[in-house]
Write a structure and sequence with these properties.
The protein is 73% helix and 0% strand. It is built from eight helices and no strands. Helix 5 (122-142) packs antiparallel against helix 6 and helix 5 runs parallel beside helix 8. The protein has one domain (4-216): Up-down Bundle (Glycerol uptake facilitator protein).
Length: 218
């Protein structure tokens, strides 16, 4: 059984890789095409393929939560302790920031930068609630013996679809949201948009947990 430190390192590395892919593929997309649709397709395709791989690799070590909302749901449902939850969340936020900085450096951009991309509207916040609720519902419904092997692919499928059908393009993760504030590129989010997005994600987490309770009720 991996120690808490090893699990936290896995959460750190997994989240760092995820945010690095999000930011780096966004930068690459804008350099490969000036067509907004093509840019989004490049970005999202890279993200979902990496997400499957990251979950498959990290899951045996830490469970591949990679998301503070997922960690909080694990706490609320008494699957894990408060100390483990807080440790994982700290690792996820730290990893997200490091991942964004690494992506900046990899493309010869200033390592430390802050996004000016304001994203908050009523519609985008509703989109974040929907994106996060769906993510939590997918994980929760499949988190049972015999079904959890489908989680990497189901999560990736939800993220891929939600990136296109939600107005927010599916951040659905407070750590990723913070990380994306550290890159003033295609995927960035301005600091004034971060807190509203995270609040919407928390609401989505509650809604998603409620959907799981209803769906799995005996």
């Amino acid at each position: 059984m991996p120690s808490l430190l090893k699990k936290a390192i896995a959460e750190f590395v997994g989240t760092a890789l995820l945010v690095c892919v999000v930011a780096a593929s966004g930068i690459q997309a804008t350099r490969l095409s000036s067509d907004g649709g093509v840019e989004l397709l490049i970005n999202i395709s890279s993200i979902v393929l990496a997400l499957i791989l990251i979950i498959v690799v990290v899951a045996p070590i830490s469970g591949a939560q990679l998301n503070p909302i997922v960690s909080l749901v694990e706490l609320v449902t008494k699957v894990q302790s408060l100390s483990r939850t807080l440790t994982f969340i700290a690792a996820q936020f730290a990893g997200a920031i490091v991942g964004a900085i690494f992506a900046n450096v990899m493309f010869d951009l200033p390592a430390l930068q802050f996004s000016g991309h304001t994203r908050v509207t009523t519609g985008t916040l509703i989109g974040e609630v929907v994106a996060t609720a769906g993510l939590i519902a997918v994980i929760g419904v499949l988190a049972k013996p015999g079904h959890n092997k489908y989680i990497p692919f189901a999560v990736a499928a939800w993220v891929y679809s939600a990136c296109f059908f939600t107005s927010s393009t599916c951040f659905a993760n407070p750590a990723v949201t913070i990380g994306r504030a550290f890159t003033d590129t295609y995927v960035g989010i301005a600091w004034e948009s971060v807190l509203p997005f995270i609040l919407a994600q928390l609401v989505g987490g509650v809604v998603g947990l409620g959907l799981v309770k209803v769906a799995t009720k005996a």
